[in-house]
Design a protein that fits this description.
It contains three helices and 23 strands. It is an alpha+beta fold and 327 residues long. A seven-stranded mixed β-sheet has the order 2-1-11-10-7-8-23, covered by helices on one side. A six-stranded antiparallel β-sheet has the order 13-12-22-21-18-19. It is elongated, with a radius of gyration of 33 Å.
C-alpha cells in the first residue's frame, strides 16, 4: 500500500507531502534521498521505510541524532512496525506517516528536489535572507547589472530594446534577444530568433526552444556573459557537505498538536537497559503473565447461585449440630 510522508514544518499550516509506492523509501539530507530534508540535524542517510508483504517498517540507518516514533527512540538497524498516523522525528524535523490508497506522486525525483528547495526557501526567508534567483552580468558593457527572477512562470526578456526587463548595451544583441523563465524550481532560457544567437556554455541553442540553464553554466550574448545565481540551491548544496549538527535537548520541537503522539511501550524484562531516551527494539510476543487489575471483582449470576447453595448447606449443618447437642 502506498506510503505518504507529510513534512510537519509549521503548526497550523498544510503539510507538504510526497507519496511513494516502492518497496524502500530512504529518508535523509543527501541529494539521493527519496525524502530529502534540508536540515543539518538530519544525517545524509538517516532512516528508511521498507514495505514487505503489506508490512511497513522503519529502520534507523546509524544517524547522528537518532530516529524516533513519537517519543520512542529506535535502536540502530532494528526495524519497527509503522502504522498510519505515526509521527516520526528525525533530528529536529517531524514527519507524519500515512498509509492508504493515495496515488503515488508523479515525477518523484523532481518533486523531491522541488520540495527540498521550497522548504529551504521558507527557512531562509524566515531568517530574512534573499531567496530570489538572479541573473548577473559578469562580462560585457553591463557588467554588475542584476536581474531578479522573482515571479514564477514569468518570461523575462533581455535585449537592446528599452522595454526589456534587462536592457543590454551589447552591440551584438537584438532588440529582444532571449527570454528567461523560472518554473518548478528550474530556469529555462529561449533564443527569441536573435541575429547572433545565444550560447549556453560553448553551444549555440536552437531558437524558439526552451533549454534548461544550470548555475554551473554561463550564457553568452556577443561579448556579454550572464551567470545564474540560485541562493536556495546553493544553500542546499552547502548543507549536504557539512557535518551532522548534534541536537541539544532544548532544540527538540514538540510533536504537532494536531496529531497524537505515539506512546512508549511498557517496560519488560526483555527490553534493553534504560538510557537517556527509550529504545525501541524488534517487536516481541506479549508476555503470558497478566498485569494486576485495580478493578473490584464482579460475579456472574451462576456464581451467586453456587454461593447461596453453599451458605444454605452450611446453615443446615450448623442447625443439625445444635439439635444433636440438645438431645
Amino acid at each position: 500500500m502506498p506510503v505518504t510522508i507529510l513534512y510537519r514544518v509549521q503548526e497550523g499550516k498544510s503539510a507538504p507531502a510526497l507519496t511513494f509506492d516502492g518497496p524502500r523509501i530512504v529518508i535523509g539530507r543527501g541529494p539521493s534521498s527519496d525524502v530529502r530534508v534540508p536540515d543539518a540535524s538530519v544525517s545524509l542517510r538517516h532512516a528508511c521505510i521498507q514495505i514487505d508483504a503489506g508490512e511497513h517498517t522503519l529502520t534507523d540507518e546509524g544517524s547522528t541524532n537518532g530516529t524516533y516514533v513519537g517519543n520512542v527512540k529506535l535502536a540502530v538497524g532494528a526495524p519497527r512496525a509503522l502504522r498510519s498516523g505515526d509521527l516520526v522525528r528525525i533530528g529536529r524535523v517531524w514527519l507524519e506517516i500515512k498509509i492508504d490508497q493515495t496515488p503515488a506522486t508523479r515525477d518523484l525525483s523532481i518533486a523531491t528536489r522541488d520540495l527540498a528547495l521550497a522548504l529551504g526557501s521558507q527557512a531562509m526567508a524566515a531568517m530574512g535572507e534573499d531567496v530570489a534567483s538572479k541573473v548577473r552580468v559578469v562580462e560585457g558593457p553591463d557588467r554588475g547589472t542584476v536581474l531578479a527572477l522573482a515571479d514564477e512562470n514569468r518570461a523575462y526578456v533581455l535585449g537592446r530594446g528599452p522595454s526589456c526587463d534587462l536592457p543590454l548595451q551589447e552591440p551584438e544583441a537584438s532588440r529582444e534577444h532571449l527570454q528567461i523563465t523560472r518554473r518548478a524550481g528550474t530556469i529555462a532560457i529561449r533564443d527569441l530568433d536573435s541575429k547572433n544567437g545565444v550560447f549556453l556554455g560553448q553551444s549555440r541553442i536552437v531558437p524558439g526552444r526552451d533549454m534548461l540553464w544550470k548555475a554551473s553554466q554561463s550564457v553568452r550574448v556577443g561579448t556579454t556573459v550572464l551567470a545564474l545565481e540560485e541562493p536556495v540551491a546553493n544553500a542546499l548544496t552547502e548543507i549536504e557537505h557539512i557535518a551532522d549538527e548534534p541536537v541539544a535537548p532544548g532544540d527538540i520541537p514538540p510533536a504537532p498538536k494536531t496529531l497524537a503522539s505515539v506512546a512508549a511501550p511498557p517496560p519488560s524484562t526483555l527490553d534493553p537497559p534504560a538510557s537517556s531516551a527509550p529504545i525501541a527494539s524488534i517487536d516481541k510476543p506479549a508476555l503470558s503473565r497478566a498485569p494486576p487489575s485495580s478493578r473490584r471483582a464482579t460475579f456472574a449470576p451462576a456464581d451467586l447461585l453456587v454461593v447461596a447453595v453453599a451458605v444454605a448447606i452450611i446453615a443446615a449443618s450448623i442447625g443439625g449440630l445444635v439439635w444433636l447437642l440438645r438431645s
